[in-house]
Amino acid sequence: MEADSSVYPCDFYMLDQYRLGNLNQDGYPALDRKRAEIGFVEQSVALPEECKTCPYVFLCRNGCRRCRDAQGKNIFCESHQRFFAYAQGRMKSVAEACRNASTIGNR
């Protein structure tokens, strides 16, 4: 949302074609209808075929759509794959530690 109460689906797409409305003038139902009409989220979650078999798709989801090339692939795909391969074990350890801490705190 902007200072004038204009609402957009993303702060990187504050263009007239993506404007959902104005919170001071339009109600939530109108903003939601415009959101559905534009289809921004639906377009953003579409995945290229190669992403569907990637072991890291659940982490990346093809990234932010502003970082996609003309074919719809994330321009940082290779670096994301290298990072996730390096960090996956560490991320699982942190998640397990958080689960354990949460379990201990609920006793």
Could you walk me through the main structural features you see in this protein, from its secondary elements to its overall organization?
- The protein has 107 residues and is mainly alpha-helical.
- The protein has two domains: 6-41, no CATH class; 49-105, no CATH class.
- The chain is 46% helix and 4% strand.
- It has four helices and two strands.
- It has helices spanning 28-38, 40-44, 57-60, 77-105; strands at residues 6-7, 21-22.
- A two-stranded antiparallel ribbon has the order 1-2.
- The longest helix is centred in the C-terminal third of the chain and has 29 residues, at 77-105.
- It is extended and about 50 Å long.
Main β sheet profile: 2 strands, antiparallel
What's the order of the H and E elements? EEHHHH
Radius of gyration: 19 Å
**Count of helix runs:** 4
Low-pLDDT segments, ≥5 res: none
N-C termini distance: 41 Å
Shape: extended
InterPro entries: 4Fe4S-binding_SPASM_dom, Aldolase_TIM, rSAM_sf, Sulphatase_maturase_rSAM
Cofactor: [4Fe-4S] cluster
GO molecular function, one term: oxidoreductase activity
Protein name: SPASM domain-containing protein
Topology:
Blueprint: E1 6-7, E2 21-22, H1 28-38, H2 40-44, H3 57-60, H4 77-105
Antiparallel strand pairs: 1-2
What's the gist of this structure?
This protein is mainly alpha-helical. Helix content is about 45%, strand content about 5%. Its cofactor is [4Fe-4S] cluster.
Task: Please give a handful of descriptors for the protein shown.
single chain; 107 residues; mainly alpha; two-stranded antiparallel sheet; extended
